[in-house]
Amino acid sequence: MVLERGEVANSWRHERWDSLRLLTPNWQCRLPGFPYDGADPDGFMAMPELIERISRFAAAIAAPVRTHTTVTSVRRSEGGYRVLTDGGVIHCRSVVLASGAANVPRVPPLQAAVPGEVACFTPFDYRRPELLPQGGVLVVGASATGVQLADEIQRSGRPVILSVGEHVRLPRNYRGRDVLWWMEASGVWGQRYDEIDDLERARRLPSPQLVGTPQHSSLDLNVLRARGVEIVGRLGTIRDGQALFSGGLANHFALADLKMDRLLDTFDAWAQARLPREVQVGPPERFEPTRAPAAPRLSLDLRRGEIRSIVWATGFRADFRWLELPVFDVRGELNHDGGAVVGFAGLYAMGLPLLRRRKSTFILGAEDDAREVVRHLAHYLAQK
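Given the sequence above, the corresponding structure tokens read:
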């Protein structure tokens, strides 16, 4: 039985902005026994297309989905677990937590210091620029969400300031192929969680600066600056209406560029050693370093009217408030080993960052993770 608090593909239907497209090419949006069969394999799905695809998959496999059923509590019970929903109680031997990693926006506590005349939004309640107050917008965060929203809002005619901290820079295309083709083909995406030196840090990395457009264009900080977006450092605090930004912008740029070049080196080494001859790619490339502003502003008076709204693109987190079990680490994250929740037999997770592989939170990563979790689950259920 699959419990869904809303409709099938609920978060894609109701918790995304209007213009969002997937970051992964359509051909990578494959599900078990359900490859992409459309006319644009190299394109990027808009939300209506993705919703239709997930709905077709659910129908094709006759998924036993109970929609509009909200789980309010999961507790241990004799022989398994007691799942309380707004539609009644379910007793079961095993539970798989597949509610995802992006249920709740992460908004820093300093939002409480924002002056009342400045409206605050998260990616869950932002829909399109026209619904923002007239005037300037401060976008906080430069992951995939932050750069896409900064670009869209700037194009609408509003002045935009983008606050940048640690980020992951990637080109949309590399050597004639989508960069995510390289991630999969070279084996980087398939790297397992138990092969990674600093797993906790890897699981906290922001999403790469990518956008899915019909033009297959890159969207990095150089592009945004050229379009008129003002780049400032990481937002450190808000004091007496003054937003104060870090002066370490150049360091963040240098580190992101260095990591990108190291990843491209990995692609090049794999291509030289193992790329099949029949697969054609272009010559190695390197990209212009991120250009730091000569004198980025270090403070911004939010009371003067230059900024009328703030969009907090500061990440997301899973929401397990209904999970009434001691299964969280000191950071409040689910304590699991490759999807098996530590200390609780029959309790599993899916869809979390680097659950078993680097691709775990992408659609194409679900199948491999699910197969391994199900093998473990089947072994557990076969025991008396």
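The chain has two domains: 2-103+317-382, 105-316. Try to locate this feature in the token string yourself.
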